[in-house]
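Review form for a predicted model. The reviewer records the input and the model, then writes brief findings.
Reviewer: anonymous (R2)
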Amino acid sequence: MKRKPEIFLILLAAFVFADLTCSLTVNSATASEKQPDRTILGEIDAPGDGILRTAETPFGTISGVICWDTNFHAVVHQAGRNGTDILLSPSLEFRAIDPMHAQMATFRAIENGVSIVRQADNGLSIATDPFGRTLAAVDHFATDDRVMVAQVPSKGVFTLYSVIGDLFGWLAVAGFVVITIVGIVQWRKEKRAATTIQE
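Model under review:
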């Protein structure tokens, strides 16, 4: 029986790098979404420590997540902080999330300044640079020749997001709340003033 090469990539990411992994099967996706800090490999379920592992190589600092981990920006955020240059992200998917899931992974590359090499069985395999530019892509459902070759930058880039995370987003929310409160207070003052003048 001929073995699929992507299985070895999945095992590499799962056992060398990740205690953070997510579902490798559609049926266990719900459990892993609720518990992104747990490793789920088929039917195996073991607690993880929540730390993204790295490996120094001649090709730069490499780290790995699998599957739905790229949906959790807090998980991948570690790649921007720990000096990861290339993030491996093998995934077993299904047609309903193709190509959306790969596009979400591209955002993680931009946020954290890393190149992403994402091999997807039953989905869109994609390689991007740290700026989110697609260097190569192969859709599982669009071809029988499922080989993707790409040259990705071996050095990540600094991003402000890797330092401040979602701070800007929360400041925007706080600003909206303050502006709303100020607007309501101002409106009530004007309403009272108009009522006083009429009296």
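Findings: Residues 54 and 63 are 4 Å apart (CA to CA).
Further findings: The chain is about 40% helix and 20% strand.
Recommendation: see findings above.
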